[in-house]
Every structure is written in C-alpha cells, then in structure tokens.
Amino acid sequence: MTAEIISGKELSTQLRNELAEEVQDLKVTPSLAVILVGDDPASHSYVRGKEKACRTAGIHSIVKRHPTSLREDELIAEIDALNEDSSVHGILVQLPLPEHISEDAVIERIAVNKDVDGFHPVNVGRLLTGKKAFTPCTPLGIMKMLEISGVDPRGKHAVVVGRSQLVGRPVGQLLLNKDATVTYCHSKTKDLAFHASQADILIAAAGREGMISEAHVKEGAAVIDVGVNRVESTGKLTGDVQFEEVKEKAGWITPVPGGVGPMTITMLLHNTVEAARGTMFNDES
C-alpha cells in the first residue's frame, strides 16, 4: 500500500481561488496589517509570501517594517493605532521579535477581533471551551487537510508529537473538539514508537529531522508532517517524518515541502476574511 499524498500546495490553490470569490461578494475589502521588526531573513521571506498571497485573494495588504532598534512602547503604540483603524480587519506581528520586546505583551495588545494569528489569550480560551475563535493558522490548516481528504477524527485515536503553543497544543484541542481521543507526546515521553504506532491520525510537530520512522506508524494511518528542518549537508528542507519509508505504510501523508506550509498562509487569508465579516464573536456558538 502506498499512501495518498495530501498536497498542501494543490489544496491551497483551490482554497485561495474560493477565498478570492468570497472576497468579491463582501461589502468591504478585507485588509491585513503585518508588522515586521528586525532583519531575520526567514521572517522577511514569510512576510513576502503573505503579501503575495493577499494579492491573489484580493485582500489589501499593509506591511510595516521596522529596525531591530524599535522600542516596545513604539510597537505597542502602532498596534493601538491599527486597533482603532476600522479599515484594518486583521493584525499580525511577525514572530520572533527582538529580545527586548515582550511577545506576550505584544500579542495581548492586539484586539481580539483582529487577532488573525489566533494567539491572543481570549482566542486561546475560546478554542479550549469549544467556542468560535480565531484559530492558529497551522493547526487550522491541518484540520482542513484532514477534512478535504476525508479523514474524520470522530472516534479516532490521534497522537500529537510536540506540545508547542503554536501547533501541538492547539491542534490537539481541535482534534478533541472533533471527538477524537487525543494523546500528546513530547521530549519526555517514554517509548514514543509505542504511543505513535497506536495513532489513526499522527501529527508530527516536534521539529526534529526524520524522528518518525516506519516503526512509529500504524498501518493505514493519516500522517501529517509539520516539521520544517534544513539538512546541513544539502540545504534542503525536510520534515519530522521519514517520508519515503513511511508513505509505504500510511494511508495518507503530507510532504515537506509542499504540505502543511502552504496551508498555513491560506488559513491566514481565511481568518482575515472572517475578520472582515465581523461575525466571529456573535455568540450563538
């Protein structure tokens, strides 16, 4: 058996086309403001990707670039101004920030209804209690990939390898909200292969190159590889999963690159459109 490849690149193209049609039907043009502080090359690359994606979906993109020397109070003041600007629907501060700026203080300053990254404590709390919320983009993208691929979490055993606030914990909660039985594994877990091999849905999000082998995977499981690791000898990107051997045992698998990555930006566009609708916190849920 060879696994079905879940191509985030293909799904993203499809979903971005659908989002572009939705944007045309809105009474306002969705607007996303991105704040970038410092000169981290990866952050600049991500932001350029977000700008390009916004253009393809008909979303207005505002990028505010600042030097590393920007003070925390100056950044907070800029966020306050964007919070008050009714023409801006989503605000994203690109992480990581320079060491002298508190990420928690910055995230908590963003208005909850403009927090399209889904990191504000209020959105995190709403996610935990099963209410509608802006959800972190990578976990949301993972759930969309499972949904479109026909993998229903209900009644399934899902194992999440990794417990980060950005991916591991929220994706586990989303799976739990969809009636999966969820196990978290991490660096202190004993006999990872035993726990992982029980999974109907295996999420590899530890950031360790090739840590998931064929021995960690149950026959026919859905394997979602969130890892992005650069091989020192070649410079190539690779995931947490040993793709070539695992694809012969899994039922579904995502590649790296071209898997979860493109879906992350697509879900940012999705959240921005939802922010423009302004209905996220109508508490009928």
From TrEMBL:
GO terms for cellular component: cytosol. Its EC number is 1.5.1.5, 3.5.4.9. It comes from the Bacteria. Gene3D superfamilies: Leucine Dehydrogenase, chain A, domain 1, NAD(P)-binding Rossmann-like Domain. One of its GO terms (biological process) is purine nucleotide biosynthetic process. InterPro entries: Aminoacid_DH-like_N_sf, NAD(P)-bd_dom_sf, THF_DH/CycHdrlase, THF_DH/CycHdrlase_cat_dom, THF_DH/CycHdrlase_CS, THF_DH/CycHdrlase_NAD-bd_dom. NCBIfam families: PRK14186.1. Belongs to the tetrahydrofolate dehydrogenase/cyclohydrolase family. This is Bifunctional protein FolD. It comes from Salicibibacter halophilus.
